[in-house]
Amino acid sequence: MGALNEERLRDFLERYNSFVDNTIPPFMYGSHYSTAAGVVLHYNVRLHPFAALHRQLQGGNFDVSDRLFSSIARTFEMCTSALSEVKELTPEWFCGNGTFLRNENNFNFGTMQDGVKVDDVVLPPWAQGSPERFVEVNRAALESDIVTKMLPDWIDLIFGYKQRGQAAVENNNVFFYLTYAGSVDVAAIDDPALRSATELQIAHFGQCPMQIFFKPHEKQRTFRGGPKSLKDAIEPHSLPVERSRGVLYKPFTGAPISHWFHLPPEPLGPKVGFIALRVVSNHRILAVDSTGTFHFYVFEWKMDSKKVLEQEARLRSDLMRISSIQKGSAAALAAHRQLSLDSADSSGSAPGETPSFDSSALDSMYDGIVPVNYDVGNFVLARERGGFRNLPRTPEMSPRAVGVSYRMVNKDCCVVVSDGGGKGTVSLQLVDVRGEVKSTELVRDCLGGKVTAIASDFESSIGEREIFGVGGKDGSVCVFVFTNSTLPRRPLHRI
Start and end of every BEACH domain (predicted)? Predict the structure, then answer.
């Protein structure tokens, strides 16, 4: 991210034009867009092993909280205003499940000067609080016609003829001279101190890739009509659906994930039977099949908006009709009363009796109103695609019995109890609601044989704790009691 706006470009050009040094050529950007410390460790500070490397670089501690990666908006503002920031975007921004945006390791990053604690990265509103959605939209933008059209210019700047020389000056692409590959022969520097300083400069401030193209890169022809700006691309209602050459184009956030990936939708379930099911959150179900593989399903209520709107329109119409009848009745009563008073004044006699209108008719009208039924629609169930390299599963390939805890422990994890490979070993696994096995404990010599039955219960005399009864092939039974997220190493009771 270089000079993305006129004000920032003006500052960089002022630095370039005013820089005077007999040994160092003028430059626009003092730091580089690709550095291990300034970019890779900065963005991935919530992941291992980058967190350990970051602390090693900072003398054993995390950097000052205000300098850590804490907010997308704050990072964008910094990269478009501070002259020392020209960061690139790492691959994690476009692939994976967005774990680099979550503080799943519960690192203590401290509190910023404004009193805000640094934890998960604050996402823009269009991500709707979902790191997965943030990465998906970024990837969709990266694969869009907008980027396809501009990609040759980017190649010219990074790998091509605009990287160096007069073309680099004309395109505002001049970096500090040590960042260019081959610009300095470090091995030829005799002064040890100068050589060390040069190596540190290259290591910590980055280096341009080798120039491999020396003429403008050819532009690719696009075959789809795309949005005119990235803002149009990420707003679902800013563009109509277009059809070009038989391809259905939809704005990024308006299309389902299968459209973004150009993949068919995931089948509803596996070909094998389930042996355990448990609702693990408001909208998620954990299922274990007979091969020991974990499956996660997402369900939600889809209200039939069309029917609800029709009911609301009918209700408004009924209320307006009754209201008009009430107003007509009131007007008739007032007119009759005024006429009676006028007649009495002219004749000098007492006013006549005002007729009464029967309100039961109006009451029956109100009784006949049908209220709006918002419970119209259906449940939608979808099986999640696995975003992990290894499918989460039980240690035993074909378990006979699996138990899943009723209560969630360790914030958002449940306990899965299963056979640990036969011979009396019991497996205890912490599985989070996103489908990742956080930890596994194998408790050996619990039973005399393979696990054949598992039962769990939390409505017992032991209070809020949950008990698991595990039975073996030889008729032995052991009992586990879970009071928190700590996995017990030994069973509480054995029969």
Answer: 1-220
